[in-house]
Amino acid sequence: MRLSQMLFVTLREDPAEAEIPSHKLLLRAGYMRRIASGVYAYLPLLWRVLNKVSAIVREEMNATGAQECLLPQLQPSELWKESGRWDTYTKAEGIMFSLIDRRDQEMGLGPTHEEVITAIARDMIRSYRQLPLNLYQIQTKFRDEIRARFGLMRGREFIMKDAYSFHADEDSLKATYRDMYTAYCNILRRCGLKYRAVDADSGAIGGSGSTEFMVLADAGEDEVLYTEDGKYAANVEKAISLPPDAVPSTFTTFEKLETPNTPTIQTLADFLKCSPTQIVKNVLYQVTYDNGHTVLVLVSIRGDQDVNDTKLQNELVKLASNYGANTVIALAVLDEAAQHKWAAQPLPLGYIAPDLSDSYIQAGVKDLEPKFLRLVDQTAVALQNFVTGSNESGYHTVGGNWGKDYALPKQVVDVREAQAGDRAVHDSSQILKTARGIEIGHIFQLGQKYSKAMGATYTAESGEAVPLWMGCYGVGVSRLAQAAVEQSYDKSGIIWPVAIAPYHAIVVVPNITDAEQMAAAEQLYADLNAAGVETLLDDRDERAGVKFKDSELVGIPFRIVTGRSLKNGKVEVVNRATGESQELPLEAVVTTLQQWIQTALEV
Ligand code: ATP
Ligand code: MG
User: Fold this and answer.
1) Is residue 17 part of a domain?
2) Average pLDDT of 284-294?
3) Are 358 and 265 in a shared domain?
4) What is the pTM of this model?
5) Same domain, 229 and 259
6) Could you give the CA distance from residue 382 to residue 85 in angstroms, rounded to a whole number?
7) I need a labelling partner for 406 at 20 to 30 A (CA). Which of 126, 142, 352, 368 fits?
8) Which domain holds residue 510?
9) Which residue's CA lies nearest to atom 6 of ligand 1?
10) Cα-Cα-Cα-Cα dihedral sign, residues 155, 156, 159, 160
């Protein structure tokens, strides 16, 4: 491609709409344009990158035996009602765009495809002889994200590869899951990314085992905890660890003490000269279930520990049936507005005890549970002679014990957040470290959740109808492209990994009015492309400095300059990643570049 003929517009300044480097660079270098919040036009250079990522994904999927297909983006609400996700996706979480067509039918734009694929499996898979089966597609997904941001990282329209596998039993599912794990490692390695596979929470999609593939970068929205022995890595949402040992309490008798101005753990510990590990902290949450029912949740946890919202949410989902609900749609620490709405009298915030009376909850409020749901974290269960609130502002109790001074809540849970610095569970000499990650892929063992809900069964050898075992596997293709930039840039611009660069090389003509320069460049341009080296020709009527800057901004791996050394039959070749420059004889350019590219792709 000749730059003189291309839609090629670069910006000198960082666009105001962009916050992180990769987003700024992709806009500045003319890869994309924002059309609406979370909606981008992928311009020709970016489209080439996306196609290269897709090609790698496709090769690795095909290598596992998965088959490509293309499912509809426009999906009837009926299917989502069968799985029970229509209301949560369109109303509660509101992540799914929905519409009503001219025949008055409700439709949604696919944020994911479990429902569609399960309906197909239900129709087409009859016998165990057809199993296992793995289908995938590469396609635009729609999600009305609350926080669309960072360009392609969190779009409302984005490209995903999603695969769904069907099995006769769990062992077969696990075998495919392992193959997909390997395929995902191959994809990320081949795309030239530094990544980590981590244990993950399975979230709303459900199911048991799941692994996320995180590209390591400071701008990542996820936190990963890992150990240096390489044996443990998990998303903080899911991570487990050993809490520090509690310091034994110095209080021996149960009494109420005046503790003025001590609403936080730190002020209380300072005032009583005790360790935060001797305190039982009581945190109030409000959870709303999918049937509209709100429950106030009182979580008791050791003072030096924090509640992990994801773990708490998972516990609350398990308890949903107690409230006639299926799942949680909102969970938050009780805020002031909610307090005014729900509390019968002002709450003793900062001084709450595990036995806070249910009479604090207003009676007769529609959809409000009149009793607290009391949960206690394991870290608090183990404490003796502990310090905690007294339900009266300005006072705490000390020397408290479960079963004597406070009833131990029936629901003992593990909702504590693991943190960097904690000891690892698999080996207590290993200390958890933290890193930021961008979630690029997520693989799940779904089990029989969707097949049971939608009645997708196969006939086993015994003649019995068995719900299909399922797995699902996603890669954010467009997010991956931007993550590659986030991991690889410098002050001059993008540094694409060779495997996914839009072009391998760019021939820059410093002065297009110099016939010799132009002729050499044209020849190289033709020869390189003919030899499979994807090459751009910068034949624009611009100053050499502008062209050099643009080639660095756009991040093409190799730059060839038909400049001064042409007199000696040579051109300058610059490696974008290392900045190294060397002169090569004209006749050596094609083979040398072929070799360099070959080497870069053999990872
Ligand atoms: P996240 O936690 O980042 O919202 P998710 O758990 O919703 O991701 P999945 O439903 O597992 O993601 O989708 C599979 C992959 O699709 C993700 O690993 C990610 O790479 C990509 N992805 C998800 N949401 C978006 C989005 N809004 N924009 C771009 N890519 C996305
Ligand atoms: Mg999401």
Assistant:
1) no
2) 94
3) yes
4) 0.92
5) no
6) 39
7) 368
8) 503-601
9) 442
10) positive
